[in-house]
Amino acid sequence: MKQLLTIEFIKLRKLKSLQIIFLIYAVISPVAIYTISKFITNFMTFFLPKDYSPFTFPDVWAVATYSASYFNILMGVLAVIIISNEYTYKTLRQHVIDGLSIKKAILGKFLVLLSFSIIITLYTFLTGLLFGLANTTTESTFMSGIDSIGLYFIQTMCYFSFAFFIAVLVKRTAVSITLFILSFITETIIGISISLGGFQTFYAYMPMNAFSKLTPFPILKEMIAAGQERNGNVPVILDTPINIAVCLAYMVLFFLVAYFTLKRRDL
């Protein structure tokens, strides 16, 4: 595995899009956490519990992961570029010619995506930790609510699996990126349409929607409770264990389809 990662990262060292996207993520992610926290405290006070504080433990974890989740689309674009480049520059074919099995070549790509997930999850954890340590004055420990970080890691891998799937099927970078981004817009439009038609449960099981609900809006439960009290309407949201299972199933499906497509395709 170490050898596979070494081979992959040697290829990625000079990829400018990798450096630019990670720099954007590193700089803007803390700003997004601060901005969303201020938005909640300044404009959504009606929904806030008395002891709620988005900059302190445990609430900061939900804010940090929700804020960071917006950048998963950007990271997904990076994954599309990396996988598509294998076709553009025929490096995957060259690895096979040089004696690397197709199974190991694909494993190398998976390990890269796993490494990216770990890196951005750790960065999100450290960002949330610093916000929490700087602002928490109560006895709450940083372990309170930290399960949001684990859910964020699953979410990043889910988005990467979908990006991998799109890039393998389409192969061309520009088309793959366009299709990847349009998938979110298209599913949202379809989801809203069928929800208005009384099929909210079906929308809850759609992949992009399920992925996004791993890191929901920090005060979503309070907003739902207020809406239910006002007009009795309750949106269909899967319980967390069910949602995790659905997301993991999609992730495995996307990776497996991409894997078998690569195995059968003429590189």
What order do the helices and strands come in, and which of them pair?
Blueprint lengths: L1 H11 L3 H28 L15 H11 L2 H17 L2 H7 L4 H34 L11 H24 L2 H24 L3 H5 L2 H6 L7 H12 L8 H25 L3
Helix pairs in contact: 1-6, 2-3, 2-4, 2-6, 3-6, 3-7, 4-7, 4-8, 6-7, 7-8, 7-12
Characteristics:
mainly alpha, single chain
Q: In percent, how much strand structure appears in the residues?
A: under 5%
Rg, please? 20 Å
Question: Which class of secondary structure composition applies to the elements?
Answer: mainly alpha
Output mean pLDDT: 91
User: How many individual β-strands?
Assistant: 0
User: What pattern of helices and strands is seen along the backbone?
Assistant: HHHHHHHHHHHH
Unreliable parts: none
Q: How does the overall form come out from the CA principal axes? A: globular
Q: Alpha-carbon distance between the termini?
A: 22 Å
- How many distinct helices? 12
Note the main sheet. none
Q: Give the oligomeric state.
A: single chain
The amount of helix comes to over 70%
